[in-house]
Specification:
The complex is a heterodimer. Chain A is mostly helical. Chain A contains 20 helices and two strands. By secondary structure, chain B is mainly alpha-helical. In chain B, helix 4 (101-120) packs parallel to helix 9 (230-255), helix 6 (150-179) crosses helix 8 (220-227) and helix 9 (230-255) runs antiparallel to helix 10 (257-283). The chains are: A mainly alpha, B mainly alpha.
Chain lengths: 478, 487
């Protein structure tokens, strides 16, 4: 065991935690804006440090449990970056509300848990980080402060407790089967030698735990509720960073170490089942939604389906999963933060598509940011999301799953019924509210962040055309 | 490098126009300059290919690493690129007076860049990227500048074509996976077994046939055409419909030749159904724009029939048909749009005697209509004639069914001409519409600048079809021999 830790292993989370501690101190001194700035600085610094270190550090494992270097540092860095943008976009909300700095601190801590979930190579770390993320998520939903938000947080919590119990059963089973070896690295050999039925049960339970965290069918019920009732910047975090971490962690568990060879075949059919279920349920669910945040909730369910199908498709699926989830995380953040900006431009906005009518006339830049996010989530070329979908298709097809590829294609088309309706409302419908310049404002920090994310989506979408895909996304490969 | 310019110039124009296009004059100048520049480069490419008969290629590389940006221009793409560049100018001139002109021109130029990208792509992924990129500006053009039902039409257009192209993407990726030689379009056929070829062919066909469109998949077209603004209709009919047929010739025939040969009778049947159905529907329309839209279905039926024959004559017919339809439909949609601007109706019954009140408009409308019905000496005839002859050669006398469509084409065209151009101006005017025939202006100088060159080209192509066939001959000959080796 190497006790001399390399920078990449400790600096990044320490920056975030440092920012949180300082921020909470500032909050205690009643300086809320400074508190938010400190938390955002910690997250931003961690993101930059992570990206820099990921390229320059030889991949390794710290203390036997935490992988670092390459994607294991770059993906968390992306998570910290998205968390920082969510905090910046919500600056005014968090700096004015009573619980504001606490919410920002929760987002920061949540991204540290996400880091641990993504890079941890141990069952105990896995359980602790999943539980930690769950607590953060309940609190963030409840933190919106409305009665509906509190109600959906309680519902989310009750469902989450059951999922947590299943997780614990599953992990305990693995723990027992491997004779107390909780590490992914050594536990796998022990698991390989035991009878397969208990191992299969353990696998099913662990998969259920991830399905809940990811919001995959049939554990999806909390997703639309939570996203609709949380405030948009918290939803931007919840819909992107924990999903990014959970999907990559699932990839590591299923593909990398713990459940190898024979068990992977069983895992595949389970993954395909919940993947296709999520895809269809989410895509069809989107079309009729009036509330835009709810629509994005169903979108999240559908998108997870692509990720699960990518994981199910063997070796070709590894890169596909990574590319897909990176593009999704950026797209989902961009979409929710654009909604925050809509709320700024039209303070009386009720969250529905109809209430967004003609918003692009009022704020052309917001219209563009919304459109870019929606088209990227649909998977249209020139936007980052296309490369994610393309890789999922390629992985499925090189795995001979033509039917699944066709299902995935059809689901993408159906989903445009939802995404397109948002664009349609923003551009083609005539505004039915009085867009008085004096009532709304120009969009503030959410608008700036949406535009930054929209530019990132365009860059991630167009640059690979010129350079080939691997150069752009190589940073994130595990 | 010149090939990259063909995409870069309109794209740059689109960006500039979006940013500084608040002023009408600036937006007009930028759009016109970009479309003229593109056309100039297209002319250079045409000349270069005509003189060397060797495909021009371009590949973007950085530090020696490959990219998806691979372009090529050969006899199949050069005429269509030239057509796109020409109609690009026409569309810009036709939307001289739209509102929010900067954004409109920006979308129009982006559309032009994307379509040229489709015709130049020498990479399967780039082909798809450009193909989908076409959807975005068209979606906004229909939804933002269209008529009463524009929102519905924009969504329908996007979802229909996206449904086809999502399946096409599966087909393209499958082609890459099975071919195993990367994403470029290889010069030689890929070693793919017939069963897989069939799967790939039909997946691709899902996207290509929706775009052409062939008859059961055509229902997006009348809505999109009727609701689109004039420039959108010109581009839609003039070049977007050609993308499907181009894709069949560019990808389906060379890479899935066995499946193409097996599917040829089905394609021919779809073509003939389109010819008859499109003409029959056109005969029943009261909306002038919808009439032209349905006639497009019929004309594209001839193109599909020519392609299906797989012979050099048939492919030449298809190519001529595409170019001719691009010119004729572009002109007709422009004329209908100009009429709508003045009268605010497209109802055939509301007009009459325009030959007297709008003599310039009426003269050009008659010429375009005659070209549309396939009068020898105008551009419609040689392509349709070659397609039908090639169809007879390959599939026998069943193709005679297409004759019904040809007769109906005469009927609907002449009906439209009789109702709109002939007759008594006052008597046929519905007073309820408040139409004052005397108040209608005839075409002005700008509009004549649009129409007259198109008429000249329609006549030139009718008299001298080798204008197009000469440049396409080598490529189409090679393609025909590829299609012929299996059947």
């Amino acid at each position: 065991m190497d006790l001399a830790l390399p920078l990449a292993a400790w600096l990044v989370p320490v920056l975030v935690v440092g920012g949180v501690v300082l921020g909470l101190v500032a909050d205690a001194l009643d300086r809320r804006p400074s508190a938010i700035v400190l938390i955002a600085l910690g997250l931003g610094g961690a993101s930059v440090a992570g990206f820099v270190l990921s390229g320059s550090t030889q991949p390794g494992i710290a203390m036997g449990v935490l992988a670092y270097g390459s994607g294991f540092t770059a993906l968390p860095a992306l998570g910290y970056g998205l968390a920082a943008l969510a905090v910046i976009a919500g600056f005014r909300r968090y700096a004015t509300a009573d619980r504001g700095p606490g919410m920002a601190a929760l987002i920061a801590l949540g991204s540290v848990f996400a880091h641990a979930l993504l890079a941890g190579l141990d069952l105990i770390v896995l359980f602790v980080s999943l539980s930690g993320l769950a607590v953060v998520a309940y609190a963030l939903v409840a933190g919106a402060g409305t009665r509906r938000a509190e109600e959906s947080a309680v519902r989310y919590f009750v469902q989450g407790t059951i999922a947590s119990g299943l997780t614990l059963y599953g992990l305990a089973l693995v723990f027992g089967l491997t004779g107390g070896d909780a590490s992914f690295l050594t536990g796998s050999s022990a698991l390989g030698s035991v009878e397969s039925r208990p191992a299969l049960l353990a696998l099913a339970l662990v998969l259920s735990a991830f399905a809940f965290k990811l919001g995959a069918f049939p554990f999806h019920a909390w997703v639309p509720d939570a996203y609709e009732n949380a405030d948009s910047t918290s939803a931007a975090f919840l819909s992107s960073v924990p999903k990014l971490a959970a999907l990559v962690a699932l990839l590591v568990i299923v593909r990398g170490t713990l459940f190898q060879a024979d068990l992977f075949a069983s895992a595949t059919s389970l993954l395909v089942a919940i993947g296709v279920g999520s895809l269809l349920f989410g895509s069809f669910g989107m079309v009729r939604q009036q509330s835009v945040a709810r629509l994005l909730g169903y979108s999240g369910i559908a998108q997870v389906g692509y990720g699960l199908l990518a994981i199910s498709s063997g070796d070709a699926g590894i890169q596909a999963t990574i590319v897909f989830i990176v593009t999704y995380a950026v797209g989902a953040s961009a979409a929710f933060i654009a909604l925050e900006a809509v709320g700024r431009v039209r303070p009386e906005w009720d969250g529905t598509r109809a209430g967004m009518a003609g918003i692009a006339r009022r704020s052309p830049l917001l219209g563009v940011a919304l459109t870019v996010a929606m088209l990227s989530l649909t998977g249209i070329p020139l936007f980052a999301g296309f490369w994610g979908k393309l890789h999922v298709f390629a992985a499925l097809l090189s795995n001979d799953s033509v039917v699944l590829a066709i299902v995935a294609g059809v689901a993408a088309v159906v989903s445009f019924g939802g995404y397109g309706s948002v664009i349609r409302a923003a551009y083609f419908e005539d505004s039915n509210v009085n867009d008085d310049e004096t009532v709304g404002e120009w969009g503030g920090s959410p608008l700036v962040v949406s535009i930054v994310l929209a530019l990132a989506i365009l860059a991630l979408g167009i640059v690979p055309l010129l350079t080939g895909i691997s150069r752009v996304y190589a940073l994130f490969s595990l | 490098m010149t090939l990259a310019l063909l995409i870069a110039i309109p794209l740059a124009g689109a960006l500039v126009s979006a940013v500084v296009g608040r002023s009408t004059a600036v937006a007009r100048i930028i759009a016109l300059a970009a479309s003229l520049g593109t056309a100039g480069v297209a002319a250079v490419v045409w000349q270069a290919y005509a003189s060397s008969a060797e495909a021009l290629t371009y590949e973007f590389t950085m530090d020696g690493a490959g990219s998806f940006l691979r372009l090529a221009a050969d006899g199949l793409s050069v005429p269509l690129v030239a057509l796109t560049a020409l109609l690009g100018i026409i569309a810009v001139l036709a939307s001289w007076n739209v509102e929010r002109i900067g954004t409109h021109m920006s979308l129009l130029l982006a559309l032009e860049a994307a379509v040229i990208g489709v015709f130049l792509a020498a990479d399967l992924i780039l082909f798809y990227v450009a193909w989908e990129a076409v959807l975005i500006p068209m979606f906004f053009l229909i939804g933002g500048w269209g008529h009463e039902n524009r929102r519905y039409a924009a969504m329908k257009f996007f979802i229909y074509t996206f449904a086809g192209s999502a399946l096409m993407l599966v087909g393209l990726v499958l082609l890459v996976v099975l071919g195993g030689t990367g994403t470029g379009m290889p010069a030689t056929p890929l070693p793919i077994e017939p069963a897989s070829q069939t799967l790939v062919f039909w997946l691709l066909a899902a996207g290509l046939l929706v775009k052409i469109p062939v008859v059961p998949l055509h229902t997006w077209l009348p809505d999109a055409h009727v609701e689109a603004p004039t420039a959108g209709s010109i581009m839609l009919a003039g070049v977007l419909l050609k993308m499907g047929a181009y894709g069949i010739a560019r990808i389906s025939i060379p890479y899935t030749p066995d499946a193409f040969a097996a599917a040829a009778p089905i394609l021919a049947a779809l073509g003939v159904i389109g010819i008859v159905y499109g003409a029959a529907m056109a005969l029943g329309q009261c909306d002038l724009k919808r009439l032209v839209a349905y006639s497009s279905v019929a004309h594209m039926g001839f193109v599909v029939l020519g392609l299906a024959s797989g012979t050099e004559l048939g492919l030449q017919g298809a190519m001529l048909g595409m170019v001719s339809h691009g010119l004729v439909a572009g002109l007709l949609f422009f004329l209908v749009g100009a009429l709508y601007e003045r009268a605010h109706t497209r109802d055939i019954g509301a007009f009459g005697g325009l030959g007297v009140t709008l003599p310039r408009w009426a003269t050009i409308f008659v010429v375009a209509s005659l070209a549309s019905l396939g009068l020898p000496g105008l551009s419609g005839f040689p392509g349709e004639f070659a397609s039908v002859v090639a169809g007879f050669g390959r599939f026998g006398f069943v193709i005679a069914v297409a004759g019904i469509g040809i007769v109906l084409a005469g009927a609907y065209t002449l009906r439209a001409v009789r109702l709109v151009v002939h007759g008594e101006p006052a008597a046929t005017q519905a007073p309820a519409d408040g139409l004052q025939p005397a108040a209608l202006r005839d075409l002005d100088a700008r509009e004549l600048l649009i129409a007259v060159p198109l008429v000249a080209l329609i006549v030139a192509l009718g008299i001298w079809p080798r204008l197009v066939t000469d440049i396409a001959a080598a490529t189409l000959g090679a393609l025909a021999s590829l299609a012929g080796t299996v059947s």
